[in-house]
Specification:
The protein is an alpha+beta fold. The protein has a two-stranded antiparallel ribbon with strand order 1-2. A hairpin with a 7-residue loop joins strand 1 and strand 2.
Length: 52
């Protein structure tokens, strides 16, 4: 794994230090979660998301 020059505290106890230029964000702020989709429904959803 590559070593970075500078690290900072992540604010997450189990994670420890992270490279200084990284941001810490909650998962709910970086994407959408769709539960229970598969097959054709998933393909339709993907098309709808791409059209937004």
């Amino acid at each position: 794994m590559r070593k970075y020059d500078h690290y900072k505290n992540s604010g997450v106890e189990w994670l420890g230090e992270i490279p200084e230029h990284w941001e810490v964000k909650k998962m709910k702020f970086i994407g959408n979660i769709y539960a229970g989709i598969n097959g054709k429904k998933e393909m339709i959803l993907a098309k709808n998301i791409l059209m937004e």
